[in-house]
Amino acid sequence: MPKDALTWMNPLPLSGADAWNSPNPRKKRTVYTTRTSDSAYRQSSRGFSIQIFSIKVLSTRAELLAIYRPSVAPSFSTTSISSTCDSRGPRGLTVDIVMDESTGPSRRSAKIGHRKSRKGCKCCKRRRVKCDETHPVCGNCSRLTLDCAWPDVASRPTPSPDPVSLSSRSTDSGEITKSQDSPASNKLERFFALLRPQNDQQLYPLLDDNEDIELPESKERRLLEHRLMQNYLQAVVQPFPMSPNREWRRLFSHVMTKLALTHDNLLYALLTVSASHLLLTEPDDMELFSARQSYLILAMREQRKMVERLSVDTADAVCFTSLLLLINSFSMLRDRSLEEYHPPLEWIHIGRGAGTVIWLSVEAAHKSGDFESSSMYVIAKSYPRFGEDQSYFSPVMREGFEGILTQALPSGEVWDDATKEAYEKTLSYVGSVHNAIRVGEPVYAICRRIQAFPLLMPAKFITFLEEQRPRALTVLAHFFAVVVQVHGVWWLREGEDGESTAKREVRAISKVLPPEWKALLVWPLEMVGLR
């Protein structure tokens, strides 16, 4: 197919389209041809699935406002927030947590003999593409007619000499330090295997110490925080529909609120989630909207600090903060602009980063030798018990979804083994969540499965989403068609107008898909009430 015939599906520069047509030289190409049928959208499967989390906060507070409430322009205080760039990528208020070098939205897997650019221009680093480091204008910027700017070498901060890593041990003081020992091989190890980071990179970019986003102490702030905490205790204290597990219920109603008194990251996360809940019924309250953005930024900043000095004593608070931030990130999808559709990559990266942080927290508690008495153990052993097998990736789970894998429709994709596996695994997981709904699992268990989606999708599938490949968008539409079947959960944002997050996403996807792919959206459109 001519390359220009694919430009409708590729929002990136031409290099993105070139990547579609570049076969992997280390993979044998196997082409599978299937046909659609009347049963292509009937869902029938059995099994169960998994949970895990993560997140990405945008570069500045202003960017948060622009994306999640573009039609509103609240007034700010005199606090100024800026974003700079260093050798490791965006700084300022950017918090980018990744599982490995391939989990970013446009990063490709490291190749044998491939050398990364360390002194590239700011534009290439912002776009996360390799820079050829040609001065004064690099090849990418010259080809795309972009403004090529270079970082000041003298101003680059020195990286932390000993970031938090996977292989670690507890000292007498409770701090987590480096070790060559690997975690014990047991059920808990397998349970959290999918959360484990694959390298020792620093989990959070450094924030500029000169950026002051602290809220001023005042009577108004005290009243606002009292209002938010009261709302949390009365209405948000159980973000999941009630679990029959008494210990699980106690985590949210007693343990978290008590820990928040001594851990700012958790306190700010509680206030952020409470503000998001209140905005459901008071969407025009500018005080609430501004407070949510401020507390979200503060929560991410304090979380970054806490992870850098992770200890046994702080592991529970770090884990709970990641969980709350993931809930909040899905809730905020309801407020983002969909006029020019882009997949919800911020939520996906938040989920993957939170999963990494949770693993480090679990390991800290596990190294202490007293993991079973920690609060995280309650989550780990609650139903569904994720990670004990991978039945959610079983082919039987995607029965009825096979039509999406058809090669009869134009896609411009090289259907190699890695591409096929990425789609099959993601489809199987979506099918496993749908099956859990079909067999009548409790709503709280379904919610945990929904939260697991960002982490469990293959990294290659995230790349496909960023490139807005029609097949990847179709899979995403099916995921939201499953989500829309869950009712009574506030952070899934089922508004009084019937415009749930899932319905908005499916409608937006249907508008950007080419006509030949829209036949595969019959079932998602029916599920969200658009047919």
From TrEMBL:
Do you know which InterPro entries this protein is assigned to?
Fun_TF, Zn2-C6_fun-type_DNA-bd_sf, Zn2-C6_fungal_TF, Zn2Cys6_DnaBD
Residue ranges for the region (Disordered) are 156-183
- Record-annotated Zn(2)-C6 fungal-type domain positions: 120-150
Pfam family of the protein (one): Fungal_trans_2
- For whether the record's keyword set contains Nucleus, the answer is yes
* CDD domains given in the database record: GAL4
Q: Which UniProt keywords apply?
A: Nucleus
Q: What GO MF terms are annotated?
A: DNA-binding transcription factor activity, RNA polymerase II-specific; zinc ion binding
Listed SMART domains: GAL4
- Give start-end positions of Polar residues composition bias: 165-183
PANTHER family with a match to the protein in the record: STEROL REGULATORY ELEMENT-BINDING PROTEIN ECM22 (PTHR47657), ZN(2)-C6 FUNGAL-TYPE DOMAIN-CONTAINING PROTEIN (PTHR47657:SF14)
Q: What is this protein called?
A: Zn(2)-C6 fungal-type domain-containing protein
Q: What species was this sequence derived from? A: Coniochaeta ligniaria NRRL 30616
